[in-house]
Amino acid sequence: MQENNTQGTDISTLGEFGLIKHLSKSIKLNQTSTLKGIGDDAAVLNQSGKKTIVTTDLLVEGIHFDLMYTPLRHLGYKAIVVNVSDVYAMNAEPKQVTVSIAISKRFTLEAIDEIYEGINMACEKYNVDLVGGDTTSSLTGLCISVTAIGEADEDQLAYRSGAKVNDLICVTGDLGAAYAGLQLLDREKRIFENNPNIQPDLTGHDYILERQLKPEARKDIFESLQDAKIVPTSMIDISDGLSSELFHICEESNVGCQIYEEKIPIDYETHKMAEELNMNYSIFALNGGEDYELLFTVPLDKFEEIEKIPDVKVIGHICDASKGKYMVARDNTEIALQAQGWTNFTE
Amino acid sequence: MQENNTQGTDISTLGEFGLIKHLSKSIKLNQTSTLKGIGDDAAVLNQSGKKTIVTTDLLVEGIHFDLMYTPLRHLGYKAIVVNVSDVYAMNAEPKQVTVSIAISKRFTLEAIDEIYEGINMACEKYNVDLVGGDTTSSLTGLCISVTAIGEADEDQLAYRSGAKVNDLICVTGDLGAAYAGLQLLDREKRIFENNPNIQPDLTGHDYILERQLKPEARKDIFESLQDAKIVPTSMIDISDGLSSELFHICEESNVGCQIYEEKIPIDYETHKMAEELNMNYSIFALNGGEDYELLFTVPLDKFEEIEKIPDVKVIGHICDASKGKYMVARDNTEIALQAQGWTNFTE
């Protein structure tokens, strides 16, 4: 647990401006649209001719992450990923981010550096500039707030509201793995808490752990769709589970849907974990979360082109709103889909 | 203390999507540049031809505010104000904000509504659209993260780095009052904690209390400067005290400065409070914070025009960097100015 490192540098030795100066050193600006980054009252951007896309997400210790098993570097990385994922879900290109962090005094400078290392790695990977933010102390937990800014031509934007009857429903990658990883980490944490002599056993679960701790956004799919000149009729990123996201698209587009359980892409490790826990793996995909895959719809006549894009799977189609939103299960029964959302207020 | 209201509606009865729907009802969009607000993966803005200004600030319970004496409505209002203030400090016009809030379960729906009432009031006053955000629970304190987005023509922007030798140094309003208000609230809180039978005595201190609890950003000055066709050579908003902000402008502009203690505008109530506390009132203005007034420089030949703008005072001038950054005190001694910044890591 990095936060208990007492051997590092006390943040108070730097003061606010010292800390800002220190953190700014590692920041590189690459976007031509960034006219002014950190160092003034605000950043200045130049998105001439394009539309500006803005999204924001807040990660809170104890709710969205557990520092007992989340490396700080991964946390910084994930904070950026979940936001650029929302920009891709608009079929837009992320360009800048701002990052605000509240950290308790128990954090050393080295711990903050680790968070920013992850942030900078993600900024490099997704080619976005870190242009502003705020660093403050917290009396209690760690809190990271990121705002991502992107751009797109208006006719390229994919809202949740554009799905049409007969459109194909597509998902990228595989689903439920991040949730499976979380279940594993929670189980091992409980075992460790009951008996600190038992070392966590995480072998053979690399994929689901990585999906939970270091998710990626689908920059590649955004680019493939651009290359194929396909503008999805609707799109959303899968952060709250397939069921919930499909529900949103149908509600916003005023349509129904039919998907097939057997077509939902699920990784072998997710299967295995669900089995170990005596759970249904489809539940992981439908109601789990944090996949950061893309769910989108395209007109039926794009079927052949979509088939050519690696890592995209057609799992069903859009139908009339009157037909409802449901999944055809493996046993051919029809199951109504429901919106979930987070439940951290009710837990 | 609103947070301990046990008679209100439990947030868990709504769930995430219910809460978002509930909060969205009261949101009005007024800006033509807002193409899409809340309700998709991201907001979409259209700032055709102008530069985009982005700034963000994080307010954390126990660090930036004390719920013992901060009404939630005021807190929501202030969270918007401190951000639009940064946009005005670029000589730009705020247009949109996103708001992310982490709230503990002890908050009722009515408490959240109060925060958003303040947020909506500020959005209306400053004519900005609330276009996105995130609402999550927190295991501990309340945390509000706001990002403000504005626009300006490039030649209208006022950076910290443009001050020139002989420029006049101007401030708006009066300084130190918010800090005086904080001192008063802290004193009365301590008295109350020692003896809950003693009611806080806040009479005769309305102005400094309002400055602390419900600050305003200088939209009027931004507009007056536009009307007078004056583009400040440099500008910053005063959130960390005059000394610190002047230090920033000098450092970024590579110049020195000379200001006069007797010219620093200080309200009578601030004077009075400093006297009661046996402190020097100039210290309140120089090292206090949260004034959200504007500090800016203009060329010497703008003197007459600047004089005509109500609530703007010339307090000194920019000189060569070699002359240093100092204040001529009432007794004619010269005092070197220092950068402060927050010290909440060291307290």
Automatic annotation (TrEMBL), chains A, B:
<feature type="binding site">
    <location>
        <position position="239"/>
    </location>
    <ligand>
        <name>ATP</name>
    </ligand>
</feature>
<feature type="binding site">
    <location>
        <begin position="133"/>
        <end position="134"/>
    </location>
    <ligand>
        <name>ATP</name>
    </ligand>
</feature>
<feature type="binding site">
    <location>
        <position position="160"/>
    </location>
    <ligand>
        <name>ATP</name>
    </ligand>
</feature>
<feature type="binding site">
    <location>
        <position position="41"/>
    </location>
    <ligand>
        <name>Mg(2+) 3</name>
    </ligand>
</feature>
<dbReference type="InterPro" id="IPR036921">
    <property type="entry name" value="PurM-like_N_sf"/>
</dbReference>
<dbReference type="GO" id="GO:0009030">
    <property type="term" value="F:thiamine-phosphate kinase activity"/>
</dbReference>
<dbReference type="GO" id="GO:0009229">
    <property type="term" value="P:thiamine diphosphate biosynthetic process"/>
</dbReference>
<feature type="binding site">
    <location>
        <position position="86"/>
    </location>
    <ligand>
        <name>Mg(2+) 2</name>
    </ligand>
</feature>
<feature type="binding site">
    <location>
        <position position="55"/>
    </location>
    <ligand>
        <name>Mg(2+) 4</name>
    </ligand>
</feature>
<feature type="binding site">
    <location>
        <position position="134"/>
    </location>
    <ligand>
        <name>Mg(2+) 1</name>
    </ligand>
</feature>
<feature type="binding site">
    <location>
        <position position="290"/>
    </location>
    <ligand>
        <name>substrate</name>
    </ligand>
</feature>
<feature type="binding site">
    <location>
        <position position="41"/>
    </location>
    <ligand>
        <name>Mg(2+) 4</name>
    </ligand>
</feature>
<comment type="function">
    <text>Catalyzes the ATP-dependent phosphorylation of thiamine-monophosphate (TMP) to form thiamine-pyrophosphate (TPP), the active form of vitamin B1.</text>
</comment>
<dbReference type="InterPro" id="IPR036676">
    <property type="entry name" value="PurM-like_C_sf"/>
</dbReference>
<dbReference type="GO" id="GO:0000287">
    <property type="term" value="F:magnesium ion binding"/>
</dbReference>
<comment type="pathway">
    <text>Cofactor biosynthesis; thiamine diphosphate biosynthesis; thiamine diphosphate from thiamine phosphate: step 1/1.</text>
</comment>
<keyword id="KW-0460">Magnesium</keyword>
<dbReference type="Pfam" id="PF00586">
    <property type="entry name" value="AIRS"/>
</dbReference>
<keyword id="KW-0418">Kinase</keyword>
<feature type="binding site">
    <location>
        <position position="64"/>
    </location>
    <ligand>
        <name>substrate</name>
    </ligand>
</feature>
<feature type="binding site">
    <location>
        <position position="57"/>
    </location>
    <ligand>
        <name>Mg(2+) 2</name>
    </ligand>
</feature>
<protein>
    <recommendedName>
        <fullName>Thiamine-monophosphate kinase</fullName>
        <ecNumber>2.7.4.16</ecNumber>
    </recommendedName>
</protein>
<keyword id="KW-0784">Thiamine biosynthesis</keyword>
<feature type="binding site">
    <location>
        <position position="237"/>
    </location>
    <ligand>
        <name>Mg(2+) 3</name>
    </ligand>
</feature>
<feature type="domain" description="PurM-like N-terminal">
    <location>
        <begin position="39"/>
        <end position="151"/>
    </location>
</feature>
<feature type="binding site">
    <location>
        <position position="240"/>
    </location>
    <ligand>
        <name>Mg(2+) 5</name>
    </ligand>
</feature>
<dbReference type="InterPro" id="IPR006283">
    <property type="entry name" value="ThiL-like"/>
</dbReference>
<feature type="binding site">
    <location>
        <position position="86"/>
    </location>
    <ligand>
        <name>Mg(2+) 3</name>
    </ligand>
</feature>
<feature type="binding site">
    <location>
        <position position="56"/>
    </location>
    <ligand>
        <name>Mg(2+) 1</name>
    </ligand>
</feature>
<keyword id="KW-0067">ATP-binding</keyword>
<keyword id="KW-0479">Metal-binding</keyword>
<dbReference type="GO" id="GO:0009228">
    <property type="term" value="P:thiamine biosynthetic process"/>
</dbReference>
<dbReference type="InterPro" id="IPR016188">
    <property type="entry name" value="PurM-like_N"/>
</dbReference>
<keyword id="KW-0808">Transferase</keyword>
<comment type="similarity">
    <text>Belongs to the thiamine-monophosphate kinase family.</text>
</comment>
<feature type="binding site">
    <location>
        <position position="57"/>
    </location>
    <ligand>
        <name>Mg(2+) 1</name>
    </ligand>
</feature>
<feature type="binding site">
    <location>
        <position position="116"/>
    </location>
    <ligand>
        <name>ATP</name>
    </ligand>
</feature>
<keyword id="KW-0547">Nucleotide-binding</keyword>
<feature type="binding site">
    <location>
        <position position="86"/>
    </location>
    <ligand>
        <name>Mg(2+) 4</name>
    </ligand>
</feature>
<dbReference type="GO" id="GO:0005524">
    <property type="term" value="F:ATP binding"/>
</dbReference>
<feature type="binding site">
    <location>
        <position position="342"/>
    </location>
    <ligand>
        <name>substrate</name>
    </ligand>
</feature>
